[in-house]
Design goal:
The structure is a homotrimer.
Chain A (H helix, E strand, L loop, with lengths): L4 E5 L10 H10 L4 E4 L4 H4 L9 H12 L3 E5 L7 H6 L6 E2 L2 E2 L13 H18 L5 E5 L12 H15 L2 H8 L23 H27 L7 E3 L5 E2 L3 E3 L6 H4 L6 E5 L10 H14 L3 E6 L13 H11 L2 E6 L25 H20 L8 E5 L1 H9 L12 H14 L4 E5 L5 H6 L3 E4 L7 H12 L3 E5 L21 H4 L1 E7 L5 E3 L13 E9 L3 E7 L7 E8 L2 E6 L1 E2 L2 H14 L13 E7 L5 E7 L5 E4 L5 E3 L4 E3 L4 E4 L4 E6 L1
Parallel strand pairs in A: 1-2, 1-12, 2-3, 3-6, 6-7, 10-11, 11-12, 13-14, 13-15, 15-16, 16-22
Antiparallel strand pairs in A: 4-5, 8-9, 17-19, 18-20, 19-23, 20-21, 21-22, 24-25, 25-30, 26-29, 27-28, 27-30
Chain lengths: ~675, ~675, ~675
Amino acid sequence: MEKLLYGAAYYDEYMPKERLEKDMQMMQAAGMNVIRIAESTWASEEPEEGVFDFSHVERAIKAAADHDIYVIVGTPTYAIPPWLAAKYPEIIAVTEDGPGKYGARQNMDITNPHYRFYAERVIRKLMETVQKYDNVVGFQLDNETKHYHTAGKHVQELFVRHLKQEFGTVEEMNREFGFNYWSNRVDCWENVPDVTGTINGSFLAEFEKFRRGLVTEFLLWQRKIVDEYRRPDQFVTHNFDFEWRDYSFGVQPEVDQWKAAQAVTTAGCDIYHRTQDELTGKEASFCGAINRSLKKDNYFILETEAQGHVGWTPYDGQLRLQAFSHLANGADSVLYWHWHSIHNSFETYWRGLLGHDMQENRPYREAMTIGADFARLSPSLLHLKKHNRAAILVSNEALTALSRLPMFPLPGGEVLYNDVVREYHDALYELNVECDVVSVSESGVSELLAGYDLVVAPALYSVPEEVLRALEQYVENGGHLVMSYKGGYANEYLTVYPDTKPHILHKCFGMRYQEYTIPQKVSLKDDLFEVSKEGRDCTVWMELLMPAGAESLAVYEHPYWGAYSAITKHAYGKGTAIYVGCHITPEYTKELMRYAVKEAGIQEPAQQAEFPVVIRSGRNQRGKQIHYYFNFSSDTREQEYLHADAQELLSCRSMTTGECFVLEPWGMAIFEEC
Amino acid sequence: MEKLLYGAAYYDEYMPKERLEKDMQMMQAAGMNVIRIAESTWASEEPEEGVFDFSHVERAIKAAADHDIYVIVGTPTYAIPPWLAAKYPEIIAVTEDGPGKYGARQNMDITNPHYRFYAERVIRKLMETVQKYDNVVGFQLDNETKHYHTAGKHVQELFVRHLKQEFGTVEEMNREFGFNYWSNRVDCWENVPDVTGTINGSFLAEFEKFRRGLVTEFLLWQRKIVDEYRRPDQFVTHNFDFEWRDYSFGVQPEVDQWKAAQAVTTAGCDIYHRTQDELTGKEASFCGAINRSLKKDNYFILETEAQGHVGWTPYDGQLRLQAFSHLANGADSVLYWHWHSIHNSFETYWRGLLGHDMQENRPYREAMTIGADFARLSPSLLHLKKHNRAAILVSNEALTALSRLPMFPLPGGEVLYNDVVREYHDALYELNVECDVVSVSESGVSELLAGYDLVVAPALYSVPEEVLRALEQYVENGGHLVMSYKGGYANEYLTVYPDTKPHILHKCFGMRYQEYTIPQKVSLKDDLFEVSKEGRDCTVWMELLMPAGAESLAVYEHPYWGAYSAITKHAYGKGTAIYVGCHITPEYTKELMRYAVKEAGIQEPAQQAEFPVVIRSGRNQRGKQIHYYFNFSSDTREQEYLHADAQELLSCRSMTTGECFVLEPWGMAIFEEC
Amino acid sequence: MEKLLYGAAYYDEYMPKERLEKDMQMMQAAGMNVIRIAESTWASEEPEEGVFDFSHVERAIKAAADHDIYVIVGTPTYAIPPWLAAKYPEIIAVTEDGPGKYGARQNMDITNPHYRFYAERVIRKLMETVQKYDNVVGFQLDNETKHYHTAGKHVQELFVRHLKQEFGTVEEMNREFGFNYWSNRVDCWENVPDVTGTINGSFLAEFEKFRRGLVTEFLLWQRKIVDEYRRPDQFVTHNFDFEWRDYSFGVQPEVDQWKAAQAVTTAGCDIYHRTQDELTGKEASFCGAINRSLKKDNYFILETEAQGHVGWTPYDGQLRLQAFSHLANGADSVLYWHWHSIHNSFETYWRGLLGHDMQENRPYREAMTIGADFARLSPSLLHLKKHNRAAILVSNEALTALSRLPMFPLPGGEVLYNDVVREYHDALYELNVECDVVSVSESGVSELLAGYDLVVAPALYSVPEEVLRALEQYVENGGHLVMSYKGGYANEYLTVYPDTKPHILHKCFGMRYQEYTIPQKVSLKDDLFEVSKEGRDCTVWMELLMPAGAESLAVYEHPYWGAYSAITKHAYGKGTAIYVGCHITPEYTKELMRYAVKEAGIQEPAQQAEFPVVIRSGRNQRGKQIHYYFNFSSDTREQEYLHADAQELLSCRSMTTGECFVLEPWGMAIFEEC
């Protein structure tokens, strides 16, 4: 598809009355050119066991074709029909919380052989049905696949098989997991206790890793089936998603997306976020950083809100701003979930573009402008490529450790892994420093890191020694590293390294520490950054840093802990290494990142502006630089144009460096350099 | 019983020592003329399977007779004996939360055939025993019957049978419930999934309706048994209750009391409420409105607190105020629960009239004055009849939708159905506008509505089209309607009406809306009512109303939503229709209701006073107007007498219109017009 | 051991690398002379069923011996190996919350015969192994034994057997428990319902008492086994602990420690508490009072924190202050839990003396000073004996009633039994009035009470009549009693006494009450004590006291309750009795206790100082008076020496009465009178 895709998920099956032709007309009128169908409607496609009925699927594909609308067909496997649950109740996953019940989607044991048998059959029938249609441009494997906390007997057996492969002997496992503790030591594989009762963090973390592996295996299995049918011009994607905090927040805990992305040709995801006064573009930026990383290429927004949650009814302009900010982050599509608002069942109030009255409304009218602009500007905006100089290093294992394990020490669960990651990401975002994400689980981490001037490693708690050595090497070779508290504390099995901290890196940081505590009335002293009093507060965690060569960027303000450093900087080899020993405020994080960016020699015109003015850049297909200027606020803003002379694409006005222009509330401008 | 009943529940079985004669003497001395016995003491009545012992029951009846005390005998079926639970463990209901355990009352599967067999037997034995006693004036069927969340295999089977009857075919059910969603579509009745796992709101709501039906069926079954024994002069009642929020708050979610009341000859209920500085009379008023509606007649207060909860120890005068305010709302009795305070088990601190020392105390001394006044004033106060001009339209189905379903959109569960209902009721109460309650489930709703000048329909979310048409007709014929947000949004199966909102009524309201959201920093502008700034806050929910003929009573104060109306008024036919598009404060609700009452032409003398002075009126048996003037505050108040010349019954003083008199703290006056 | 013990729990089994010799050297260098081993490592000692390997145990004992370090050997039974759980899954206790899972420690059914069989075998094998070592100075039975909420079928059967013994007939049980209530009346022992479903407080409380008995039985059983092997010079102890509120707070609810202590020769316990700005010494004082009471002798601190919880990293000086305050309360040992910080599993962040890097650190350096001082001062500080004049009367049954039962009336669960007990204890502590603890379950309570000038009975809700009579006798004979609200309200089965309150004692208190409520805007009037306005607040509970002979120390300030007394004092016989009818503030409690102490004629020099200066005294082995002066604050304090002329032991300086000296922040001085 050499054009931007704009559209929505479409469910003819859910309509309260005949709407297909009317809907396709309305979509076409709005410039929409793609629908996403079929996923989650297994019971409509196979209403009885072995009885298949794809008439609704074909009907939708044909109607779409009549209106020049592409179709992405999803396999329907993430929600099973009642007859299947009735026949094989064991398909519903037993989880840590006990047996499940039929009703919701995404509650099956994805390892269950019966489930696999029926899922394969319906996928094959569906593929046979849709392969003949030209306007089917691609396939989506399942939807937001997770392990759904499957933890029954069968999964436990698979897990023990995994442990055997991982450790060879129980002795080795006992040693790595510290199973001597509280008499957990295992004498033979048969006696490995049910992991759902364990209090051993290493054992639990390994189980989480194993379950993330189940997701990868499941998607690869679906990919293989789909590949038997698809044409070479059809893509395969998956609707990945994020840690959910009533909106898309951070790295997904249940999937190693870098591994699972082997199953797709194009990365895809859904993303939901707050709007109105809380629309910031931060989630879209984080989403882009993750998704560009999965296939090192552009990606699809397969689902995002038009109206979504009842609290998110968009202000005028916000729907446009959302759509274009996805493009600015490297997306090649924007699809809403969903076209219309559902009239009953569960997601009645997770609203689509149309409301319950299914009539033209304010959001639809705004969508019409987006569709028109997408169509017109597609040649300039499609396939935007980035060359970012900063990266954030993330890890599913550290996420597990610092979010999911009751035995982790961060007090009260108030700050979790993704909070720390987002705090650093958001600081860079507010500074208009675009950044990528690198995952510890990617192959060739060393090589990947070498491509950046600045690497930020937040909350990288559990990490193999080779990654720590790679980071040391990175600095030695001239890289600039910022690592936060708890970094490199434990190995990949969550066993704390039993020596000087930070493990391996203490020379690189020119600092070590032995003690840590929860800050009570502690703040940072000797502020380089002129941060406000409240901005200097330490909360949640503090390490008592003892510099040995490093410079103190900040020490603690406290009668007893004042003797220790809070943030250190150290020149090491050709690079520098900054260590942040405590949890700091967003305000302080931003100033520290401003400092680190400068140290790393990153200096781009965009940095002259700051949030709520957000600037995103890249190179388009014809090799021209594109710059998006967004206004994430309700205020009209006069903004200087900071890049080389260009054409503003929305107004078709030419623009000279240094010229001023107006950004309307929640408005934007798009520049293509001459 | 042509006299006011005053008494208490009495449990000889629970006494720590022989007390019967002493207690009867004390009751008689206090003017008490009724006790309520036997309910909940099955294990005393049938200590072993098939061994019956009603000696305590008879003993109490005889002792009461000796002291001219009537007896209401309750069937003992709401708590089963240990031997029955041991023999048939399946009698304990399996609920949504899993299997129950023996111990508490009200935890059985009321559909269980074994339970029914033994319950019937003990009821018959009890009836045989007590039918010979003259002072047994009536019977209470079971107690506070609910469905107790019974949801086991047997209930699921009954529910599927109900679905078959309701829908005929699975196809029809699939369509009504939107079962295509998330692959929930059912292929045959055998495969209808266990409702306890569902995420389908329509399915759940239907189950709740079905379970309310179980309660009706159960009480009708008991009535039939009791009818075989009772004399024509004996009444049958039931102790209905209210939604419980640590006190009696609103419409009962688990019972359709209008349907269930078919099983009784006289409505009855229990009511508990806060006292001390929080005694307002609002719960007594709401209680009266519901109970007068059930049999269109007077009703019994079968249980209310003397001391009750430890936080409710009454101030001097409050026990009197409570007792008379029930009469003022149309009750013919006041019975305390219970006579004495229990010395152990569960409700040790749910206190009776006597404390644990079982000696004369302050509350008992106040009860003596009540008993004396009841006896003296019975001819004037018994059978008070109301002719109210305002009504509140309520619905168990809307209650289910807006209180019990996790998929409902009101954010955070902070405001539920009964909150909205109570807000409108309480506003009328504070204005001294007496109102009735009409339920959507009553037959002849149209005719019922026609009797009122003002109908208020708060939070009437799910409602059949015929009710919406009846409301339209009501306005067209000259009625005055106030409807709140979400009104008429979905049908009786909780399926949102897929067209212009408000469904059917948009012409009547001269307004439609397409969008809604959660108000953030939103208030009401252009206030007609001079309400304070805080009083104009919008919270929880707001609809963006677009008048088409209607007048805006208020628009939103907000940079983006300011273009929309919040409250509209429209003349339609001979009547007017007010629509309130958002959740408003109690202060604003009161002013809006003052306005609506005026529009509806309701103008009574009582409206010249306002809470905490509360005035309730009615006609007594000899056709005279009775006016209660209550002071719900700790302040002494000078009050003008607003009605026609009358006799004050407590002081036996005559009173002229316009004359002033003193209301003591928590004091009152009762006037009988000449 | 005629010397102070100083050491740590040591787990060679948990070490990430070979450390034994290095650790023993470091311990010896720090003056540590004892380690505690083997408890909780069953799976290391019996890695497969019937295969025993005590090499780690012996290795540790031998290494310790080489460094003049004693060893306390713990039986390993509080955590079972996976093979045992796999073979007998029923060993994992079924609790009120349902079946448990293998994983955690302390989750077994301690009555399970299989568990007992294997536990006995491993204990015997261990004892056989270690009995030959001279440096094994004693044994610890199990660890922190509780009933672990065991409540399965087998336990229910044992409980019914217990009920038969207690009551003889079901009729008697029905009567005592008030089983007529809600139809709970039982017809035969076979039909006694599963206690886990009950709503009967008496039944539940009896079950709690029964389960506390299981702990006693279990420890006596272990003692008997150990006694077959131990030498006469070896002690037997147990690691008792406290109610846990994220630190050691109050009386342990699951164990009757006075009964269970029959199983040991020396009392022992663990204690954990907050530090930094929240280090007060109050927990150490309460710990001492309980433990001195168990065997009427000195006791061991078997576990306390060096660093412990991440929030408790100690300030400089605090580790010393903690160690010596235990000695000052009568402890003969201080052992840390544990030597090093664990590198994985569950308690990774429940830190030992050494951190994860296992290197010398700040806490270790402070421990070196403690070890040196302990060694030097042992002759003066060992076996400190107290002769206190005040005692607090506690009760496990009252604790159950006022903490564990949902039917108890204290609102919201905000104030529980131990809160009240601690409030009175802490007030005495702050006044430097040392007190003992007496338990209602001790034999000879009358005699024990007679030894004190002042007895405080806080929240003594459920108590047999003989104890109430003993208290009356105590006052009559000249004792001074302070009893708080709810005192003596119910009998040992939690049945409220059905007569004048306070039961039995109303004459002694010269007062009775009939009513009570939750105070809302209520405070105390006519303050004798010049307490601040906030300090006079009443919360949680208030009784409306009616003096009949007693003097009002305070009445309520409230428009309605102002007629009643809040605190009364009455001269009775040769003594006085103070009754506190409401929950008062810590500030008011302190002033009231100051008054009560004075009334009781207790006047010691220590009372001239006040918290944060804390003074603890006693007589050492050579009959000399020892006085500890502690500074529990960050401020340097000038303090007058208040006792007879003495030698300051740390500085070896002599000190005269009235002389001033400096207490450093978190500092101390120890005086031995000449």
